[in-house]
Amino acid sequence: MKAILTGHSRGLGAAIADELLAAGIPLLAIARRGNAELAARHPDLLTQIALDLGDPANLAGWLAGGELEHFLGDAGEVLLINNAGTLGPVAQAGRQQADAIVHAVSLNVTGPLLLANALAARPGVLRILHVSSGAARDAYPGWSIYGATKAALDHHARAVAQEGRPGLRICSLAPGVVDTDMQAEVRQAEPEQFPLLERFRALKRDGLLATPAAVASKLVAYLRSDDFGRQPVADLRTLDSASA
Ligand SMILES: NC(=O)c1ccc[n+]([C@@H]2O[C@H](COP(=O)([O-])OP(=O)(O)OC[C@H]3O[C@@H](n4cnc5c(N)ncnc54)[C@H](OP(=O)(O)O)[C@@H]3O)[C@@H](O)[C@H]2O)c1
Fold first, then answer.
1. How far is the CA of 225 from the centre of ligand 1 (A)?
2. What are the tens digits of pLDDT across the range 11-69?
3. In CATH, what number is assigned to the domain containing residue 45?
4. Which of 12, 107, 129 to mutate to test the pocket of ligand 1 (most atoms within 8 A of CB)?
5. Residue 218 to residues 20, 65, 99, 106, 244: CA-CA distances in angstroms?
């Protein structure tokens, strides 16, 4: 078994990488920056690729270069975790910067779809986990771009699951509210652009954010479980304990 993960340099992705490496799974991890601490602890298991996944031409060029196939070799089972993401413009329609929209769609949607397509072209067992969000399922004013990009991942998972390719399982999974840089960014929004701001500030103030380590542990257990992919769209907070 080998794994591909995006966004391992910090936040939830760093904790997911830690879980996979601790389980002895060789990992190819992609982000703009590296994770020196994980590299020092797992020099033989971790391959880091410095790539801006917000630039689809960059990613497509890297995929054509053969480094992915070289890493995977003859691995019979592959895990893909599409974790890298951005909140994008936190602003209401008409107030969003055009380049921020393009970047968010490229990073949150185009990148995951390109990686999923490249890996699905190989024979063998493949488990794809898109890191989605509750914002894909409930509409939050000010997060129209973020919610739309995560809803795109949910729908991609539904359609790929329907294709029924033997050996391929897929799930677009909302992880819950996690104490990362992204949440710090959420709390800095302008209240008139994001009316739910106070709710998110209160989650931090009241100690209600999950730790990246706790979420990663549950997420990786689910990814490796027999139940993975039974539902193409799921929420980590409501999986029953047997499957998580
Ligand atoms: N935190 C939450 O409460 C929460 C809730 C629901 C869903 N999520 C989702 O969970 C995932 C992880 O979120 P997080 O909270 O851990 O975010 P984070 O702390 O902001 O970390 C984001 C990760 O994505 C990578 N990344 C960002 N832009 C990139 C780019 N252009 N190219 C390559 N990698 C890039 C970052 O690495 P570099 O900066 O080194 O490139 C970093 O490793 C995201 O998909 C997010 O939407 C988070």
1. 24
2. 999 999 999 999 999 999 999 999 999 999 999 999 999 999 999 999 999 999 999 99
3. 3.40.50.720
4. 12
5. 12, 34, 35, 28, 6
